[in-house]
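To assess whether ligand presence alters the predicted conformation, the chain was also submitted together with heme C. Input:
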Amino acid sequence: MMKSKSIQLFGIALLLVWLAACGGTKGNDATSQESAGDAAEGKSLFYQATIGDGDAPGCVTCHSLELDVVIVGPSQAGLATRAGTRVPNQSAEEYIRNSIIEPNAYIVDGFAEGGMYQNYATDLSAEQIDDLVAFALTLK
Ligand code: HEC
């Protein structure tokens, strides 16, 4: 009788240890994602018809992900590969980020200045911009 009760208690203790361990793992995941943007989140932002606080036009209304398909802006197929070669001393990440927050800093050949929506720097949160950059960096 005594014996089965202590086995029962041991089982409960094990369960508690297991639950605590699972909670701890979840906490770690959250902190490890803190610094970088989330590409999956950026992808769903990219496909929204409107984006941000002021309902700005979404990226997909002007940019195709199919090779050489121009809607209003250049296709973003292969963007991550050429982004690092656009502006001297600018990494792919820096170039893509600048293209979003300061679109007239560099105008892609064959396109007009002002063609890209101009106010994403204020319409989008820093996190949304990070996520869009992370997604763009997957377009190799
Ligand atoms: C109203 C149309 C329009 C919208 C909306 C738009 N863009 Fe653009 N985008 C353009 C045009 C036109 C260009 C080329 C002219 C230039 O360089 O500014 C461009 C250029 C770019 C470039 C540089 C591409 C290259 O090949 O070097 C990036 C990156 C970019 N856009 C990202 C985005 C993202 C991300 C969004 C959504 C948050 C977005 N754009 C929304 C029209 C648009």
